[in-house]
Specification:
The chain is an alpha+beta fold and about 425 residues long. It contains 12 helices and 17 strands. The chain has 2 domains: about 5-100, Helix Hairpins (Orthogonal Bundle), CATH 1.10.287; about 115-425, BirA Bifunctional Protein, domain 2, CATH 3.30.930.
Length: about 425
């Protein structure tokens, strides 16, 4: 969300800087509303000035014991005009705000310019891609053969794009959740949160899901609640409409939640398996920091997400998203992609983003500099988040990268304590 005065004064610059990211923004409406807001604001200020001068004149007449009735009537009429003008201003500002909420964040200067994912820039690769003596099986086939994944019964229970995990598969999912949370809390210094899995409209607006992406969300029929698409939403909104002390920054949180997405724009994509479901599990990392430290924090947060893959011994790469592939709210994003042998390609398992002050402005999250008194000027925090990691996709990577010739799957050593010492998943 942009400050409305800044938006009016810098509209052409914002539009040019966004390029294709702003193709569906109602720029003409925004310009018209900005000009109208300025005109009505000027009118209101002029009326208020006249009201103040008129009030002074009424007071002078009364002190001089001269007739003041005519001046008082004029002030009453002027007060009514102010009330009408203020009402018009509220309507214009509401319409302008609703349109401005659809403007994406400006990309950081270091973000590569590009039209789509083909122009993303690879930063690094780590891990060794496994070699197989025969073509590796896709995870849904591995899981079905082991009796730990059941998509047919999931479809019976709910529908397409759902899954049922049983036995060692369910235990592996739970082991991954617990392992990730333990690493992020005990090794990386995050505070664990269990937030609500439903949030209100203000929360969704604060983090940028609304109003633009409402069709991608699951909404309650009789209540204005939404199932969360990611823990980023409730955790970031922990501090909505708060002023934080600079002494406490940075704040770092981690949360496991189920995530719910309609996947409205993904028709025909990843229709089999666990890659693109309506419900999936994820461990999220969220940070609040001062503007001068946020890009240092982005590197730190990304490194924490990477460390999970490193300890699991899963090959991956890190890419910087170009301007045309970056998410709506982000100023800069690193995607971490894990290697999937059955597809012979890297697939996203985490997105780590710096939103700068974009979300903080929408959610009114500010901080007072360290040592500042109550009257010290506040500023907006910078917010960041990243998956640490998408649990289902991590399970996919384990089933595919560690599948054995006999059909079993080797369990990464760091997970074995969470699996009761089990070293392999074999046919149940």
């Amino acid at each position: 969300m942009y400050d409305l005065k800044y938006l009016r004064e810098n509209l052409d610059h914002i539009r040019t800087s966004l390029g294709r990211r702003g193709n569906d923004v109602p720029w003409t409406d925004i310009q018209k509303l900005s000009e109208e807001r300025r005109a009505v604001t000027t009118q209101v200020e002029q009326f208020r000035y006249e009201l103040n001068k008129g009030s002074e004149e009424v007071a002078r007449l009364r002190r001089a014991k001269e007739p003041a009735e005519e001046a008082m009537v004029a002030m009453k009429q002027l007060g009514d005009r102010i009330k009408d003008a203020e009402g018009a201003l509220r309507k214009v500002e509401e319409a302008l705000t609703n349109s401005a909420l659809r403007i994406p964040n400006l990309p950081h200067a270091s973000v590569p310019v590009g039209a789509d994912a083909s122009e993303n820039v690879e930063i690094r690769r780590l891990g060794t891609v496994p070699a197989f003596s025969s073509p590796p099986k896709p995870h849904w086939e591995v899981g079905d053969n082991l009796g730990i994944l059941d998509f047919d019964r999931a479809a019976k229970i709910a529908g397409a794009r759902f899954s049922v995990m049983t036995g060692a598969g369910a235990r592996l999912e739970r082991a991954l959740i617990n392992y990730m949370l333990d690493q992020h809390t005990t090794q990386h210094g995050y505070r664990e949160v269990i937030p609500p899995f439903m949030v209100n409209r203000s929360s969704m607006t604060g983090t940028g899901q609304l109003p633009k992406f409402e069709e991608d969300l699951f909404r309650m029929k009789d209540e204005d609640y939404f199932l969360i698409p990611t823990a980023e939403v409730p955790v970031t909104n922990l501090h909505r409409e708060e002023i934080l002390s600079g002494d406490c920054l940075p704040l770092r949180y981690t949360a496991y939640t189920p995530c719910f997405r309609r996947e409205a724009g993904s028709y025909g994509k990843d229709t089999r398996g666990l890659i693109r479901l309506h419900q999936f599990n994820k461990v999220e990392l969220v940070a609040f920091t001062t503007p001068d430290r946020s890009y240092e924090e982005l590197e730190r947060l990304t490194g924490h997400a990477e460390s999970i893959l490193q300890r699991l011994n899963l090959p991956y790469r890190v890419i910087t998203l170009c301007t045309g592939d970056m998410g709506f709210s982000a100023a800069k994003t690193y995607d971490i992609e894990v290697w999937l042998p059955s597809q012979q390609q890297y697939r996203e398992i985490s997105s780590c983003s710096n939103f700068e002050s974009f979300q903080a402005r929408r959610a009114s999250i500010k901080y007072r500099p360290t040592g500042g008194k109550k009257e010290t000027k506040t500023d907006f925090v910078h917010t960041l988040n990243g998956s640490g990691l998408a649990v289902g996709r991590t399970l996919v990577a384990i089933l595919e990268n560690f599948q054995q010739p006999d059909g079993s799957v080797e369990i990464p050593p760091v997970l074995r304590p969470y699996m009761g010492g089990l070293e392999r998943i074999e046919n149940e």
